[in-house]
Structures are given as C-alpha cells and as structure tokens.
UniProtKB/TrEMBL annotation:
Leader sequence residues: none
Taxonomic lineage: Bacteria, Pseudomonadati, Bacteroidota, Bacteroidia, Marinilabiliales
Transmembrane segments: 6-21, 28-46, 61-79, 86-110, 116-134, 146-166, 178-198, 210-229, 241-262, 269-285
UniProt xrefs under InterPro entries: EmrE-like
UniProt KW Membrane keyword: yes
UniProt organism field: Marinifilum flexuosum
Keywords assigned by UniProt, alphabetized: Membrane, Transmembrane, Transmembrane helix
Entry annotated with the keyword Nucleotide-binding: no
Domain of life: Bacteria
Protein name in the entry: EamA-like transporter family protein
C-alpha cells in the first residue's frame, strides 16, 4: 500500500510544483531540464551502478526508451503550461483520464475483449474530460487555453501506453530503475537540444530558483514513475486495481489542493465532470 500512496502523492506533487514555478516566475523549460537531470541521477543511484553502457544498449527495452524519453519532455512541457494557464484541477483530470487511451491500446494490441461495461466507461470518461474543461463565456482567459488539457489528454495517453507496454514486456522481473534512468536522461538531452535551437543562454540553468524548482520537480517526477512501476510489480493487486486507486487518488488530491491552496474555482459543470471521471474510472477498472 505504501507504493500506491507514494505514487499518488508524488504524481500530485508534479502539478503543485508547476503552480509554484509559475508563482516564482521560473522558466518552465529550464526547470524541466534540471528536473530530468535530477530524476536520471535518482534512477542511477537506485540502480545497479556497475551496469555498463554496452549492457544498456543490449537491453530489449533500449529502443523504446528513446521514444518514451523524447515524448516525456513534450508531455511534461504541456503539463506545465496547462497547469499554469488552464488550472491544476482541470490539467490533473485531463492527464489522469488519459488512461482511457492505454486501455484502448490494450484492447487492440493485446486483443482484449470489448464489453458493454468498457464502452460505457469510455463514453463517461470522454464526457468527463469535456465537462471538466468547460468554462463560462465570461471566463475568457482560461477558455483560450482549453486546447492545452485536450492536447495533454492525447499525449499523456500515448506516453502511458508506451510505459505500460514496456512494463508488461520487459520490466515485470525488475530493472525499472535503470530503465527510468535512461528515459529521464534522454528527456534531459532532448531539453538541451531545444535550448540550443532556441539559442537560449545556458547560464540561466544555474539560477538558484531554477535549480531549486527543477530539483524538487525532479524528485517527485522520478517518484511518480518509480512507484507506479513498483506498484504494478509488487503491490499484489491486479494492474486494473492499481491504476484505479492511483488515478482516483491523484484526481482527488490534486482537486483538493487546487481548491484549498490555489483557490481555483470550479463551476457546477466542472464538478459534474469530476464526478463522472471517478465513476468512469470505477467502471473501467473493475
């Protein structure tokens, strides 16, 4: 149960970190790069440090790690912008409801049966996302950023599908630490490439608030992936139960934080969307 609890808290912590990065006016891209350096170091310290690069290259998950690592930084950047512009509650819900896509992936790739229960769950899940991001006409500021949580829904769902595939195929007997290390390292390298393309000053990476923000973000980011895989492997629950507990927990904690700490306002339609999201998660994972 501790793995599940840590997975929920660390994942919710990501959204909280992004809100504080906005508060202290920290450049998102710079913080994300420091975050991935921190996360890769954490993975390296927890892994078998005697493993060589040659051994890593010959791991069966080496190729897919490049795809996931590159997608990581794209998804993380969208999370950051959406959290700051569209709000923590809506961004969290869009991110976590994206697990509908991995379930579709499982049906197609693993040829799982399609039941009436799953169809109802999919319809409720998509409705929940649409309702949760609805804004009144008077809230023009947030309305123009609604494309961010929508985009996040699809990007995060694709990333989760790839992570689920890697866990099922390659990581059931361990090795998630070095796998996570490589993913985060690739994401960090991708971030540096973006900096070079943007011709941004590398000295900005060493500003105190960038280092502190990126460090904290990296710790919770590493924890979110590490404890998710650990929960799938060691909790003793079926994966559907694990995803159910974690996703409901993250949505609940993040919404409470958004309302209680950041004073975010949800209209009645948004609240209906959150209720439908929880119902959809129960239907799809039980």
């Amino acid at each position: 149960m501790l793995y599940l609890l840590f997975a929920i808290l660390s994942s919710a912590g990501i959204f909280v970190c992004f809100k504080y990065l906005e508060k202290y006016k920290v450049d998102i891209l710079l913080a994300i790069i420091i975050n991935y350096i921190t996360a890769s170091v954490c993975g390296f310290l927890l892994s078998d440090s005697n493993i060589t690069f040659t051994q890593i290259v010959h791991q069966p998950w080496f190729n897919i790690s490049f795809i996931i690592g590159t997608a990581f930084i794209a998804a993380f950047f969208i999370i950051g912008r959406s959290t700051q512009k569209a709000g923590i509650s809506i961004t969290t819900l869009a991110s976590k409801m994206s697990f509908v896509l991995p379930m579709i992936f499982s049906i197609v790739f693993y040829q799982e049966a399609i039941s009436t229960q799953k169809i109802i769950g999919f319809v409720l899940a998509i409705s929940a996302v649409l309702l949760s991001i609805y804004k009144d006409q008077t809230d023009a500021t947030q309305r123009k950023y609604l494309w961010l949580p929508i985009l996040l829904f699809f990007v995060a769902g694709t990333v989760d599908s790839l992570v689920k595939y890697a866990q099922e195929e390659y990581l059931t007997s361990g090795g998630q630490e070095i796998f996570s290390t490589l993913l985060f390292a690739i994401a960090a390298i991708s971030g540096f490439v973006v900096l070079i393309i943007k011709k941004q000053n590398f000295k900005e990476l060493f500003r105190a608030k960038v280092l502190i923000g990126g460090l904290l973000l990296g710790l919770v980011n590493f924890g979110s992936l590490h404890f998710l895989i650990a929960s799938l492997n060691k909790s003793g629950f079926d994966s559907s139960v694990v995803f159910s507990i974690i996703n409901i927990g993250i949505v609940a904690v993040s919404v409470l934080i958004g309302i209680g700490i950041f004073r975010e306002k949800l209209n009645k339609i948004n609240l209906l969307g959150i209720v439908l999201a929880i119902i959809a998660i129960f239907i799809l994972t039980n």
